[in-house]
């Protein structure tokens, strides 16, 4: 059963009534400004995956070492996701500060002259990433009428899916055209656009009821919540392990040249974009079944990719289907968590984002270890195994919720 009854008036409903009334147009402009910010954050987060080789060559370190920048981003994001919900600062001001950190991070990455400076800049991104994701879904609940919340969340997630389409391909293309540092300067520009949009569109949004550690611990006691979080650890770490080291895989195993690399990564992104909408459609019918199916499909498509990488057509098809499968997972598991938490949106969102980032950290770390030990195909093999384990975990732990 959900954590709170539907008859109980939620803090978000009381906060919405108390917040300053703004026009419907401004409500939706505010939602889109969050989507632009998410686009910039996810683009920045994914950028190193398509630029891993040139960054490593320029900084004079191994590909695996640069991959640990992903770990640094995720570690800080996990802490920031939880820390930000304890803040009593107006959410509009907080979101704008986080967008400033997005800009600073990308400028720092572009100017980095050593691995440690690069990792430090990426750690700053972690603060922006964790904080924004922890608040985004909860803010959607306060910006639009209750009947439009699903649409608002879908718009915010559209920023993520659009970035998943653009970031790998554009990163590779810009890296080829103006160098990897130029690519980070470009994303700093996207962050600037998001900041201006948020300053103009977001209304004042006072912090909701005080969050305590006890409230977070209580949430973790509910089977529906911890089932979703365990599944996230398996599936997301699986995908990140493969995604972070996808360029070395394509270059060394599939032997895709530079002229096809951007196209292949674009297929991955387009698959993810389509998968997001498929996942939203499926989650609207059963978020449990959609989450389980997405997890299994990530594992199965990774298996096909691992086994058929030497074949160029199989590799291209497998990449697109792998992206599609994973694209369906975040929106499905977010819907599952939201349905399970009901009146505790910010708290559940913080736990979910923190778990996401722990999974990203684990995936990047394990992916680097496997890549260094077993070669470029290793992370994809790990992805297949871990994602299938995630599907089994979700199916087993939520068996009583099957309808």
Number of beta-strand segments? 0
| Total domain modules | 2
The number of distinct helices, counting runs of at least 4 residues, comes to 14
At the fourth level of CATH, the homologous superfamily of the largest domain is MFS general substrate transporter like domains
Q: How is the main sheet built? A: none
What is the mean pLDDT?
A: 80
Please tell me the CATH architecture of the largest domain by its name.
Answer: Up-down Bundle
How does the overall form come out from the CA principal axes?
Answer: globular
**What is the percent of helical residues?**
over 70%
Main CATH class of the largest domain = Mainly Alpha
Approximately what portion of the residues adopt beta-strand conformation? under 5%
In short:
Helix content is 83%, strand content 0%. The chain has 403 residues and is an all-alpha fold.
Structural overview:
With 403 residues, the protein is mainly α. The chain folds into two domains: 190 residues, Growth Hormone, Chain: A; 190 residues, Up-down Bundle (Growth Hormone, Chain: A), CATH 1.20.1250. It is built from 14 helices and no strands. It starts with 10 loop residues before the first helix and ends in a 6-residue tail after the last helix. The N terminus is likely disordered. InterPro entries: MFS (IPR011701), MFS_dom (IPR020846), MFS_Efflux_Transporters (IPR050189), MFS_trans_sf (IPR036259). One of its GO terms (cellular component) is plasma membrane. Its main location: membrane. It is a multi-pass membrane protein. It is found in: Cell membrane.
